[in-house]
């Protein structure tokens, strides 16, 4: 929540400072995001394949090593996609192809591919609003 608090602090005061107060609504927003994200990953993970502590350890370690190697190679990766791929890998090693709920895997990857054009469209629209916004400042 640090970056969001910093951006909000700069927006409020128009200055960059070393320390700033974190509003309570940012803390509540962060807590809600963590709770929703935890439940989402728990449900998504158990719907792809069954989890156990040893399987979870292997998934997390595999995803972390993938992210570290990709970072060393300067490749952009999504940590969510890495953990989903690790979940599929562990599920395949622990059982057979039927141990994986392939519809959930397809849904997760389709969501990632849909996110790219949607994000481009939203950010382009926001930029259009910013560029074409009226300015009340004195002309230079």
Element string (H = helix, E = strand): HHHHH
Determine the fraction of residues in helical runs and give it as a percent range.
over 70%
Largest sheet: none
* Proportion in β-strands: under 5%
Radius of gyration: 21 Å
Strand tally: 0
User: How many individual helices?
Assistant: 5
General description of the model:
- With 140 residues, the protein is mainly α.
- Helices cover 74% and strands 0% of the residues.
- It contains five helices and no strands.
- The protein has helices at 2-13, 24-48, 53-72, 79-94, 102-131.
- Helix 3 crosses helix 4.
- The chain is elongated, with a radius of gyration of 21 Å.
- The protein starts with a helix and ends in a 9-residue tail after the last helix.
- The model has no long low-confidence stretch (mean pLDDT 85).
Short characterization:
The protein is 74% helix and 0% strand.
Please describe the topology of this protein.
Elements: H1 2-13, H2 24-48, H3 53-72, H4 79-94, H5 102-131
Helix pairs in contact: 3-4
Record keyword descriptors for this entry.
single chain; 140 residues; mainly alpha; 5 helices; elongated
């Amino acid at each position: 929540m640090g970056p969001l608090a910093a951006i909000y602090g700069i927006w409020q005061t128009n200055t960059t400072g070393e320390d700033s107060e974190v509003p309570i609504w940012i803390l509540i927003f962060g807590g809600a995001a963590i709770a929703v994200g935890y439940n989402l990953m728990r449900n998504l993970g158990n719907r792809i394949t069954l989890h156990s502590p040893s399987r979870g350890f292997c998934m997390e370690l595999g995803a972390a090593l993938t992210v570290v190697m990709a970072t060393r190679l300067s490749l952009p990766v999504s940590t969510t996609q890495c953990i989903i791929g690790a979940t599929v890998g562990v599920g395949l090693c622990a059982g057979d192809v039927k141990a994986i709920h392939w519809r959930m895997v397809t849904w997760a990857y389709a969501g990632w591919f849909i996110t790219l054009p949607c994000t481009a469209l939203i950010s382009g629209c926001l930029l259009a609003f910013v560029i074409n916004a009226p300015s009340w400042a004195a002309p230079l």
